[in-house]
Amino acid sequence: MVSELRRQRDAERRARTRAALLDAAGRVFAAKGYHATLISDIVGDIGAGQGTFYRHFNNKREIIDALFERFVGALLAEFAPMSLDLPNDIETYRQASVAAVIRVTHVVQSQRDMAQIFLHQGRSIDAAFERDLAGVFDRFVDIAQFHLQRAIDGGFARPCDAGAVAQAVVGMALRHMDLWLMGRIDDDDTERIANELVEFAFWGFAPRDSAPEGPA
After folding, report:
1. In this predicted structure, what is the pLDDT of residue 49?
2. Domains of the chain from N-terminus onward
3. pTM to 2 decimals?
């Protein structure tokens, strides 16, 4: 009979192997592109056989789905502190927003290859992946809209079309991420720009001391 300790060790070994395959796939996709990558390239990166790959994934499409899920999960997790401790005034809301955006920025910086793959190759993978990518953008819009609508309802943000504003805010963030991936924004500037985007989202072009504190 297989002991519980043996089962636990086997499970841990499988998890390590799966993670190693995911990391290898990320490196190879970044270097060769999704469509040019072969299963043999992925397993060759870690010195494994193709049988190892097929014990964890059915095909190349499945492994990029797993990479995408892992990457998106890491990004979304950075909004959890803000959602667990909802701001109740405009300054707390601003500070929480800056902190969340900077945390997301750090995740993207630490996984630059993944961001490059999904933003620059994602739409070419297939129609289903393009829909998944659009769905993730929608999730970020939903997060922004939820917090903005709560601020409006709480009286510490001006009345506005929260959905339209949320789309605009996420669009600005995506544009700057794309510029960073193209090397047009330096790594050292990302936190400053993240802070600037939040400031713009809160105050627009108006001087800070003339920004409305809430609905009239």
Report:
1. 94
2. 1-57 (1.10.10.60), 59-210 (1.10.357.10)
3. 0.88
